[in-house]
């Protein structure tokens, strides 16, 4: 006779499973079911596992957390050049002559737009409440940068430029005394770093679909991860290649920072973040 054993999982195993579930949210697989009921399914699955005698089983791996928001700052003009003896972040104020000599248009070099956009995202109550899940920058030279939501970006432009030079040269910025990467260059394409159930929303003044941002986010399904793609450049339009929806949010051309504030405000209202 076979004695029925109740399966016990040591604590560290359980923790590992939930870590895997969290990681798997970012793995692209068409048959991974991620939804609002996932938490319920997970506990039902675990009960079933514990009741079965002597059968080796794997724990069901499903996501249990509601999704927050992602931002992608597109066409970010972050480019370094050797001006004199030093490498510097090229910008239209300090390097106009240098850029003109190289037949480049200084008005394309506006890293201040990136700086303001980053501060608008990171300073928002939305980010402070923990609902910012991911933040990426795609530069005009196709570098992809991941910015951790809890990073503190320098508030002055000069120090921001210094940080960006360091990042582009060393490919990463780590926290003092720790190994955690706060900013790092990662592999393209950006879609590989987004959850399977993400809805990618591109913003542009040029879109024919004018929406009221508050109503737009209120109508969005809670099971979708919203990914907002905002241009961090002075001219041109964002890359529409991977976009699910392309919207305009005002009758006026806005700055990237103003646009981001509208998105954050709308989400703060939806999620009751005061
Ligand atoms: C300085 S603007 C770039 C100007 C560009 N001509 C455009 O409208 O796309 C920076 C970014 O803010 C966003 N933006 C500006 N005005 C907008 C509007 N009315 N609706 C939606 N997004 C807007 C776009 O993502 C844009 O790329």
Explain what this protein looks like in three dimensions.
The protein is of the alpha/beta class and 274 residues long. The chain folds into two domains: 10-17 and 33-65, no CATH class; 69-270, SPOUT methyltransferase, trefoil knot domain (Alpha/beta knot, 3-Layer(aba) Sandwich). It is built from eight helices and ten strands. The protein has helices spanning 11-24, 38-51, 96-101, 111-122, 125-128, 157-170, 213-219, 256-270, and strands at 69-76, 80-83, 86-89, 132-139, 144-147, 172-174, 181-186, 198-203, 225-231, 245-247. The strands form two sheets. The protein has an eight-stranded mixed beta sheet. It has a two-stranded antiparallel ribbon with strand order 2-3. A hairpin with a 6-residue loop joins strand 6 (172-174) and strand 7. The longest helix is centred in the C-terminal third of the chain and has 15 residues, at 256-270. The N and C termini lie far apart (62 Å). 28% of the residues are buried. Mean pLDDT is 83; it is low at 4-64. It binds S-adenosylmethionine. S-adenosylmethionine is lined by residues 203-206, 230-231, 233-235, 237-238, 248-250, 252-256, 259. Residues 203-206, 230-231, 233-235, 237-238, 248-250, 252-256, 259 line the site of S-adenosylmethionine (SAM). One of its GO terms (cellular component) is small-subunit processome. Belongs to the class IV-like SAM-binding methyltransferase superfamily. RNA methyltransferase NEP1 family. One of its GO terms (molecular function) is rRNA binding. InterPro entries: Alpha/beta_knot_MTases, Rbsml_bgen_MeTrfase_EMG1/NEP1, tRNA_m1G_MTases_N. It is found in: Nucleus, Nucleolus.
């Amino acid at each position: 006779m076979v004695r029925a054993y109740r399966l016990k999982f040591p604590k560290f195993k359980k923790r590992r499973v939930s870590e895997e579930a969290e990681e798997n949210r970012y793995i692209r697989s068409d048959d991974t079911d991620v939804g609002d009921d996932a938490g319920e399914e997970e506990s039902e699955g675990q009960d079933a596992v514990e009741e079965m005698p002597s059968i080796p089983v794997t724990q069901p791996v499903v996501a249990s957390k509601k999704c927050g928001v992602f931002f992608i700052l597109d066409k970010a003009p972050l480019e370094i050049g050797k001006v004199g003896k030093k490498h510097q972040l090229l910008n239209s104020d300090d390097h106009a002559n240098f850029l003109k000599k190289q037949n480049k248009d200084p008005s394309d070099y506006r890293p201040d737009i990136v700086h303001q956009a980053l501060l608008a995202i990171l300073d928002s109550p939305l980010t402070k409440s923990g609902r910012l899940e991911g933040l990426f920058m795609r530069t005009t030279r196709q570098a992809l940068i991941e910015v951790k939501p809890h990073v503190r970006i320098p508030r002055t432009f000069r120090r921001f430029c210094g940080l960006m030079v360091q990042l582009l040269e060393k490919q990463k910025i780590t926290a003092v005394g720790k190994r955690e990467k706060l900013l790092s260059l990662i592999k393209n394409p950006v879609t590989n770093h987004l959850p399977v159930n993400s809805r990618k929303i591109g913003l542009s003044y040029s879109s024919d679909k004018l929406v009221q941002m508050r109503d737009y986010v209120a109508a969005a399904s809670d099971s979708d991860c919203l990914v907002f793609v905002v241009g961090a450049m002075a001219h041109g339009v964002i890359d529409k290649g991977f976009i699910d929806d392309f919207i305009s949010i005002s009758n006026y051309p806005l700055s990237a920072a103003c646009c981001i504030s509208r998105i954050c405000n709308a989400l703060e209202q939806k999620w009751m973040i005061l």
